């Protein structure tokens, strides 16, 4: 929070010095006012619970396998002991793969979030951009994320700096 306040203070100071128009918004608040977002979030939460229950069920089965192995360990031949250890290792690998499949960076949850929530976020961003352009704002700061979500492209000095450094002509 302190970092956000410092950033806001710096932006407002910058706007006063250079007469820039800055506004802020709270995207979390705004998204929570959109019924489609609430419904999408609810669907995503339900899927997450289902997938988590699926993983917990597999972990309970693994624990049961492990417990039974510990009980039987002394009575098993070497070959049987190695086979059961391999079965347990295979089950552990299956669970890790299931976790990755459901919750990994390219997993089912990420894909569903992209399908359900990203279109709503894109719609919000487009409305923000249109508002900024219509009202001549130079920067729009999101207090929910602590990031600048819109900046007037005319104020981008990246090429001028690269030119000064000799990297572009």
Tell me what you see in this structure:
This protein has helices at residues 2-18, 27-32, 35-72, 78-103, 108-116, 118-134, 158-165, and strands at 22-25, 139-142, 147-151. Helix 3 (35-72) runs antiparallel to helix 5. It is built from seven helices and three strands. The longest helix has 38 residues, at 35-72. Strands 1-2-3 form a three-stranded mixed sheet, sandwiched between helices. 72% of the residues lie in helices and 8% in strands. The chain has 169 residues and is mainly α.
Number of continuous helical runs: 7
**Which class of secondary structure composition applies to the elements?**
mainly alpha
The largest pleated sheet is described as:
3 strands, mixed
Q: Biggest sheet, strands in spatial order?
A: 1-2-3
Number of strands: 3
- Helix percent band: over 70%
């Amino acid at each position: 929070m302190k970092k956000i306040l410092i950033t806001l203070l710096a932006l407002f100071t910058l706007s006063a010095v250079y007469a820039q128009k800055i506004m802020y918004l709270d995207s979390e608040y705004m998204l929570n006012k959109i019924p489609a977002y609430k419904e999408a979030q609810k669907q995503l939460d339900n899927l997450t619970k289902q997938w988590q229950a699926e993983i917990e069920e597999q972990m309970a089965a693994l624990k049961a396998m492990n417990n039974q192995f510990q009980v039987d360990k002394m009575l098993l031949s070497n070959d049987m002991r190695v086979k059961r250890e391999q079965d347990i290792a295979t089950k552990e690998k299956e669970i890790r793969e299931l976790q990755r499949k459901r919750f990994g960076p390219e997993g089912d949850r990420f894909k569903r979030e992209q399908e359900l929530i990203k279109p709503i976020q894109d719609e919000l961003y487009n409305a923000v951009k249109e508002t900024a352009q219509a009202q001549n704002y130079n920067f729009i700061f999101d207090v929910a994320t602590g990031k600048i979500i819109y900046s007037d492209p005319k104020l981008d000095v990246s090429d001028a700096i690269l030119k000064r450094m000799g990297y572009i002509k």
